[in-house]
Amino acid sequence: MTTTHDRATPSTSRSHRRRRGPAHANGHGRKRSWLLPGGLTALAVFATATALAVHWTPAGTSEGDDGPAAAATPPSQQAPDRSAKPSVTTTGAEDSEKDDVNPSGTDDPSPGPSSSASSTVSIPPSGPGTFTTATGGSKTVGQGSRLLRYEVVVEDGLTQSAADVAGQVEGILADPRGWTADGESSFRRVSGGTPDFVVRLATPATVDKICGRYGLDTGGEVNCSVGKDVVVNLKRWLLATPVYADDVDAYRALIINHEVGHFLGHGHVTCPGAGKPAPAMMQQIKGMHGCTPNVWPYDTKGRLITGPAVP
After folding, report:
1. Tens digit of pLDDT for each residue in 255-267?
2. d(CA 37, CA 39)
3. What's the pTM?
4. d(Cα 195, Cα 208) in Å, to the nearest integer?
């Protein structure tokens, strides 16, 4: 099955997300002031964000904050919605997917040190399609009875190390504002055996190939969640989106939270109201619709941050 963060548009089928409830927001983080000082600057950024949203909007069902996310197929013993169809999540300007980590409209603390996206970052368009798995593992996080084991792999040839990426993913999934707050899910990173899902960081072309097998068109720009794979586009991982350009770490959280959310069976939702934090399962890449940036599915009091379901 397919899913978001940052997602692509399914070329032949509807959103595969069992996220009925994308993804497909990202990210799968969930916080920054995006108000700009000058009117002209604001208009320029608005135009840029609009262009990105149009470019990343999937032709079919869009997922998560990053765009249309393809719903991943959860473990057999707990597959919530096997009827869902593959969908893509574009992790672009919205959450991309979506990894809106800063819930500025909530009492949630900010995600910590952030890294700024650089327009000079060199991103290889393609890679060998083979991956290196992060060694070792993590302790179990969360008290839920549904233990999900996952691997983190990075495409060979990238400067990003599997160990570093695994550390970031572990931190996102262990955050008390993450999916462990649902009271049902717990996570443990592994490096062997048969994991329940795999987080893959890959070049744009490789992402297109993996997601394309499920009928999804990621267009070299977005992420997707398909089958047991949460596929993260290197471009989105490094550059984030306009809303999160100054807090790439937050955007990464949105990508992971959005896409893993699809894997857990959550679908896309929209903004619950002006001034409220954007849900991690909202396709923030399509616009904030009055909501404030946020990349976490829950707030610090354990309350789910959500909104009206997207048809």
Report:
1. 999 999 999 999 9
2. 7
3. 0.67
4. 23
